[in-house]
Amino acid sequence: MTVYNVKVKDHSGNVFTEKVEAASPEQARSILKNRYVAVGKITKSAFDFDLSQLEVALSKVTVKDKAVFSRQLSVMVNAGVAIVRCLGILGDQAGNPKLKKALIGISADVQQGNSLSEAMAKHPECFDDLYVNMVEAGETGGVLDEVLERLSKLLEDIAKLQNQIKSAMTYPMTVGAFAVIAFLGMTIFLIPVFSGIFDSLGAELPALTKFMVWLSDTLRSPRAVIPIAVIGGLVFAFKTYYKTPMGRLQIDGFMLKMPLFGDLNEKSAVARFCRVFGVLTRSGVPVLNCFDIVCNTVSNQVIVNAIRGAKSDIQQGGMISLAIQKENVFPPLAIQMISIGEETGELDSMMSKVADFYEDEVEQAVKALTSMIEPIMMVGIAVMVGTILLSMYLPMFSIFDQLA
């Protein structure tokens, strides 16, 4: 892509130079001709890189960004506004730089005769396989506005589920971080003051006080780099191992079995699978394609492998519920409800009901988890602060005994 300087005239009659990134001068003209009254001379910019490009590179299109865009596009398409005009309007008002750039490119591709799904497929950083396949199904069936409405609802549900999981982690991580900072602050700055007093008095220090003084001296010396380097090395080794197929499978398996969070991870994965699968089938996406798309939306490798195994059984003529049951990953309740949906011919609606049920379960699990973590965190903070205070007061008792 190249940056071009283009002379343009807006609706107020103002003439100025607009910068646009495009593959060719023709594409640059095509991008701008629907946004301005007139497009004039086009020249290649002397500097291809500017701050806007850096902003685009650093920005990320969130689920919420896509949900808002989908709902707005659905309303405009339903109102009969041409796709190119819709993309131009939404591109102008897009707050996310990466999404704005993608919409400009998509608008240019649609003007050149490409379908909306084909144009979106060229921007995987903004529109994944799920989005592209649903848009393609909507274009094929002539119900693009309805599919976009379902897609916006799906993305909103996914964002809600993600926020519920994050809320379960945010509180303990925040409190834990403050606790560690307080502990380190007291250890580094408070203990040396008392240590100097004890040395001047010649008091015999208890074992706990000696340990805390040693820890304080270590943290204030160059040796403090060693534990930091060890922790950094362990984090790097963990991330490297997780990137390997075996490592990801083992760690994701543990995530499903770990205390407190294992049940939450399983329920959220089941809710995500059912929600996405139900919306895809209702939008007319072939069942086998649904399995491929869902694999890209589920982050746990154990469940991804189970979905792929179920797809192989379905290719041979099996039922979805039996194929999923064979993998021994999904809860029995979800399997039974999916089986009922297949028998009644209402698989998509039953999938949505399963998703609703497990999303409610996730919400309740998050509340229960938060209520359990709060007292545990309070006890942990009390132990940390109490340890420091006790290590400082124990020598004082010894001194008082000697004075008596």
TrEMBL record:
Span of the signal peptide: none
Location in or out of the cell: Cell inner membrane; Cell membrane
Type II secretion system protein GspF domain boundaries: 69-192, 273-395
GO-annotated biological processes: protein secretion
Segments traversing the membrane: 175-198, 224-242, 376-400
Membrane topology classification: Multi-pass membrane protein
Coiled-coil intervals: 144-171
Sorted UniProt keywords: Cell inner membrane, Cell membrane, Coiled coil, Membrane, Transmembrane, Transmembrane helix, Transport
Keyword match Transmembrane: yes
Top-rank lineage group of the source organism: Bacteria
PANTHER family reported in the protein's UniProt record: GENERAL SECRETION PATHWAY PROTEIN, TYPE II SECRETION SYSTEM PROTEIN F-RELATED
Family assignment from sequence similarity: Belongs to the GSP F family.
Official protein name in the record: Type II secretory pathway, component PulF
Source organism of the structure: Hyella patelloides LEGE 07179
